[in-house]
């Protein structure tokens, strides 16, 4: 696959990203473009591109990896809530066997985890923190959101490290 101006426009890339891509030489390799975004500290851009060029198995793997980076944070806060962990396990089954039954189970687990997060967010003092962690763990089939949520749930100093770790994992997936 090659990244072209037309491809970026078709996928509704933000204007700033397109301008930066054009200014840096328009390399068509997705991994090169992702690495360029990372070098520019544009982790959101890198994540946006990663999930648009991945296969189903790659983006579910990416979502699971991202969720696993923060699920313990969420579970420490809400030890009785096992919905996020169940969503991760259901997503892993989809990676191994992406059939209708496993996809349906993953969606049900995602919905349960999302509902739990919404309920906690209604009364949690740090609702954004709880909701982001639950989203990351539960968005098994929505890697973009999972990775973004996972990256933003940690403390500021660790946040960038987590983002880099998640995006680097995405790059590894794309190279395999």
Structure description:
It is a single chain. The protein is an all-alpha fold. The protein has two domains: 5-53, no CATH class; 56-157, no CATH class. 79% of the residues lie in helices and 0% in strands. The protein has ten helices and no strands. The chain has helices at residues 5-10, 15-23, 30-39, 43-53, 56-77, 83-96, 100-123, 127-138, 143-153, 156-175. Helix 4 (43-53) runs parallel beside helix 10 and helix 9 (143-153) runs antiparallel to helix 10 (156-175). The longest helix has 24 residues, at 100-123. The chain starts with a helix and ends with a helix.
Structural class: mainly alpha
The mean pLDDT is 74
The DSSP helix count reads: 10
Number of domains: 2
Helix content: over 70%
> What is the straight-line distance between the termini?
14 Å
Q: Based on Cα principal axes, name the global outline.
A: globular
Strand residues, percent: under 5%
Number of distinct beta strands: 0
Order of helices and strands: HHHHHHHHHH
Please state the CA-atom Rg, rounded to the nearest Å. Answer: 17 Å
Offer a quick outline of the entry.
This protein is mainly alpha-helical and 176 residues long. It is 79% helix and 0% strand. It is globular, with a radius of gyration of 17 Å.
Topology record:
Layout: H1 5-10, H2 15-23, H3 30-39, H4 43-53, H5 56-77, H6 83-96, H7 100-123, H8 127-138, H9 143-153, H10 156-175
Helix pairs in contact: 3-4, 3-10, 4-9, 4-10, 5-6, 5-8, 5-9, 5-10, 6-7, 6-8, 7-8, 8-9, 9-10
